Amino acid sequence: DALKKKVLVARRAPAAVIERLAAHFEIDAVPDDRVLPPDELRARLQGKAGAYITGTERITAELLDACPDLRAVCTMSVGYNHIDLAACTARGVLVTNTPDVLTETTADFGFALLMATARRMSEGERLLRDGGWKSWAWDFLAGAEVHGTTLGILGMGRIGQAIARRGRFGFGMQVVYHNRSRLAADTEAELGARYLAKDELLRQADHLVLVLPYSAEAHHCIGAAEIALMKPTATLVNIARGGIVDEDALAAALRKRLIAAAGLDVFEGEPRVNPALLTLSNVVLTPHIASATLPTRQAMALLAADNLVAALTGAVPPTPLNPQVLSA
Ligand code: 8YV
């Protein structure tokens, strides 16, 4: 159909997404799980009005200039640091993400990673599988307490608040947080959350969870100086973006036991993992799976598709990041 707009689906997507998009558009769907290299992404975007992407494909100003037909970029992720939003807005390209549908699932995983890290679950499993479980000792694999301790949250958005609820209501924790802006008083009261300056948060937290969006200002905002403020018994959990943490500094701190342990679901330069982290016993490492349940991934995928359909058919997309483009 020559009248149908063309869209690129840049990664293998659920059949329901392809069906929904095919009802409106002529689709060029990448059938496999590899990330398109930048030049291939550019080539396949020629003549396309829309791009359905994931958290991996980078949308830069140069790419937009090379793809003048592009009107909408819809990412199946809540994070959008892979997209130059200002460049998109300046060119009238609508951008959407997938907030809300992954909040509770991602918070579940953040809490699971905190628990696994504090209670040394990966270390225990490795020891058991390697045949190292020979006897019992009073301090055998003794970890850090979770219930009743102080939960620190850096980045108190939707996911941060969902983690705060788990900590407060499930584990009787005291919640302290730092965020660019302070929460409304009634939200703070509901979460029992106390706002602290960043340094004070680092000092007080028994378990510190990073859930802030990645940006130039957030780059390596947890490094040697910040880790030095933390308790030697503290654990650090990162479910945001790898670039927030200086991994070399973290690995050095874990080796010297400046903090007790870390749980990392995200890495700078993933899927490559800093080799310095791989040799440490006091770190739990997972391959960026905090939103990975089938229902949540399906909801994210369909929300991204709904956004793309709306964006290219003159409707208001459910979750736009630059809605000003719609009224321009
Ligand atoms: C995605 C994420 O799985 O939503 C995000 O920002 O990091 C994950 O939920 C990943 O970006 C793939 O799209």
Automatic annotation (TrEMBL):
The keyword Oxidoreductase is annotated on this UniProt entry: yes
PROSITE patterns in alphabetical order: D_2_HYDROXYACID_DH_1 (PS00065)
Q: Which residues form the D-isomer specific 2-hydroxyacid dehydrogenase NAD-binding domain?
A: 111-290
| Source organism of the structure | Pelomonas caseinilytica
Q: Where is the D-isomer specific 2-hydroxyacid dehydrogenase catalytic domain?
A: 7-322
Q: Which family does it belong to?
A: Belongs to the D-isomer specific 2-hydroxyacid dehydrogenase family.
The lineage's top-level taxon is: Bacteria
Q: What is the protein's given name?
A: D-glycerate dehydrogenase
Q: Does the keyword Oxidoreductase apply?
A: yes
Which PANTHER family does this chain map to?
A: 2-HYDROXYACID DEHYDROGENASE-RELATED, GLYOXYLATE_HYDROXYPYRUVATE REDUCTASE B
Q: Matching InterPro entries, A to Z? A: D-isomer_2-hydroxyacid_DH, D-isomer_2_OHA_DH_cat_dom, D-isomer_DH_CS1, D-isomer_DH_NAD-bd, NAD(P)-bd_dom_sf
